Amino acid sequence: MNEKRLRLLIALGALPMALVACGSATNGNNPGTGGAASGPPIGTAGGPVVGAGGAGQGTAGAGQGTAGGDVPLQTGPCVQGVPVTTQLPRLQNRQYANVVRDLLGVTAVDTTSVADALVADFSGAMTAPAWKVYEDVGARIAAQVMAGTNKSKFIACDPAATGCLKTTIQTFGRKAFRRALTDDEVAAFMSLGTVTPAGTPTEVAEATLNAFLVSPSFLMLPELNTEADAMLPNAIKLSPQEVAARLSFLLWGSVPDDELNTAADGNLLSSKEQILTQASRMIQVREKTGPFVSAFHDNWAQVNNSSAHWFQGKHDTKVYPTFTDALTVANQKELDAFFEEVAYTNGTFQDLLLSNVAFVNKDNASVYGLDPTKYTDMLSKVTLDSATTPRPGFLTRAAFLGSYSDYGSTSPILRGSFMSIWLLAVNPGAPDPAAKMATVSGTFTTQRAYVEALTMQAQPCKGCHQVFNPLGFVFENYDGIGKWQTTDPKGGAIDATVTTNTVNFGDGNSKEISSPVQLMQEIAKLPKAQELYAQAWVSFAYGRQQNQNDQCVVDQMKTKLAGNGYTILSLLADLTQADSFRLRVRGAL
Description:
Layout (H helix, E strand, L loop, with lengths): L2 H10 L1 H14 L65 H12 L3 E2 L2 E2 H4 L10 H20 L3 H4 L9 H13 L6 H8 L10 H13 L2 H4 L16 E2 L2 H12 L6 H8 L6 H12 L2 H15 L24 H19 L5 H6 L2 E4 L19 E4 L14 H6 L8 H12 L23 H9 L5 H13 L24 E2 L12 E2 L2 H9 L2 H16 L5 H14 L6 H7 L4 H4 E2 L5
Antiparallel strand pairs: 1-2, 3-8, 4-5, 6-7
Helix pairs in contact: 1-9, 5-9, 7-9, 11-12, 11-13, 13-24, 14-15, 18-20, 19-20, 22-23
């Protein structure tokens, strides 16, 4: 940021006041600005607003779900009502990046992606180091836009022309703030051209864009409407513009488009039916909603859980000569492509576990028994031959199989524990800290025989492993990087037939499972697995931890998931129909 532009912004009061407003989102304090300007900062619609102090971020699409935890969170029975949420969530980095891409055509700052140029996402009050980064990134984006081919995305007229800057402030501000600017806000932005020393029209325009990018109403998603709902007097109705923002940041992680803004300004987002009309339209914009669908499923499958095994390890190339770092990259890209494709081909929860669609390139084709010379660096959609080598769902893709294996062998323990904990919510408890690692001796002709000898001798290990191991043994036909095998590397024939533990499926009964397809079919129809999937969606989409109010939405979705043909995209649309999507409740101060 050059010195003249810095003086312009400080004179306006945008920089110090924006920092104060960001801090007040969490603690409600207003310690003063320490600056020369008086009155509300640009973009606060009257000044700092005390946050609700609620249970979560309260903004669609901002949630972290259960990633990072040890087991899926449990909640109580449904309690009708709207959960408490904050009024002032801050944009996550991915959202900030999407917004400047959609508004200004900017995807990188210098050579760094916009999201990576910011401080890692954090909760709580704004910090001085993070604010300094917002200042720096905002200044560099403004300079880049004004000097480049995307200038017209911000200002389409000559900055020196009469009325040009005011029109720009009003039109760009409507998009950037997700609402019309007040007269006071327009006047505040216009004052950038009246400070001393005066900047050139181009400098003033750049300072104006910079001021937008560091304004609280840009960096946050304020929900300031105060009108009580007629049916739920303790709840406050969101304004149509606030509903539009919730919709766009849920489905697209970005600002509303022109059609959604027009609907909001025409008061056409007041009813559930009106909201659903827009949501259904937006969901079909695959290039915008598809990445959100993949991001959710990464969260549900624990891919972004730093304690999980996804893509963490390497493999012994003496045992697996086709393993390379490029294979890991391909596997990761395939997983996201798989999740998105299942959703956008009218797929259901069951299809996530049973579809034989895959995405291959020259790096991962051989894992699926395909000729790598027939593929390029780009992923290609294929339908795998399930008759000879069953490949039901994402758990039989190379991403999972290679991640949940050991360096030089398969790991029935890792594979079985993942399914037990994250898909079936079976939690046998923490291992005994006093327990010592078992050792076994002898000759074993299969990995299964070795693992059984190692873990099933006596308590305390046996208690956990008699739950985990059988599910993992069903997958022993997939080697440590995911290739199909009928003979174990130790020399013996693979036996994937098991009798499950009585706690695996929650009904007190054991089951005879003879194939991966049968196991996935059992999980796909299990009510608990369907409920966990619905819980993960609600928590991730609404941006808050599971709670008894949201459990009512979960229960509705669980009922639909138990039927036939309830698609993932239908579930996504239903997320916009809850009362809590168009209402908010204040927390105690």
